[in-house]
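May I ask you to review the protein record following this short note?
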Amino acid sequence: MRRSRWLVARVLAACLTALASRAGSAQNESDLAKASQNPVANLTSFPLQFNYYSAGAFESRTLLLNVQPVMPLPINKEWIVIARTIIPYGNVPMPGNTRETGIGDIQEQVYFTPRQPGRFVWGIGPILSIPTATNDALRTGQWALGPTGVGLVSEGRWVVGVLANNLWRITGLNSGPDINALTVQPFISFNIPPGWSITTAPIITADWSAPEGQRWTLPVGIGLGKVTEIGRQAVSLGMQYYHNGKRPDTAGGDQWRFIFALLYPIERR
């Protein structure tokens, strides 16, 4: 009888340990999901963002892969710098039923943000566009510089914020319109344990150098995300769809966005 009770107690203890471990893992996934939705979190990540645009220029398709490594760099006990690089690699339709493939202009974004943020999280700094393009369709030949900023609130299951920047040409080729471009990305995520989220993060752009009526791209859409582990590696997976309600004639009407990101959380000290 005593041995039976001992076995039952051991089984119950094992079950409770497994449940507690799973609950802790689910909590970690949910916390990591919220951190991955924060552009200025103290989180090293290596996202790959694949974008598929349909019905674009010349009634064809545009494919764009953005490689976006993000690295936090501590300055002191009060401040950190978030360095975010965007390397675009595109396959773009050209006249004559041809396509052009290659790298676009690389952007470097730098955000200064408090190391111990409050309820409202913010970051501000410069953004630099470097004329590195090997893809003629994406080439500007211009260096551009401007301010960039982000602000967000993380409360309960919600992460709500906005990222915005504007680039102006500072030097480079004069063969095309000067760069003068606004980017605004509002983002809203509703997190569902363990690690799931419903997300919208449309990228709104305005090309101030374009003719009137061809400046704005205004997408609307929604998507689903999941933070999990592959082996021992934390990853973020996502799929989103957007329809460009207003767009230039050369822009795609519909966009599918697929995200795969390696995550390396860092404890704030």
Confidence is low (pLDDT under 50) at residues 11-27. Helices lie at 2-36. Residues 2-36 form the longest helix (35 residues).
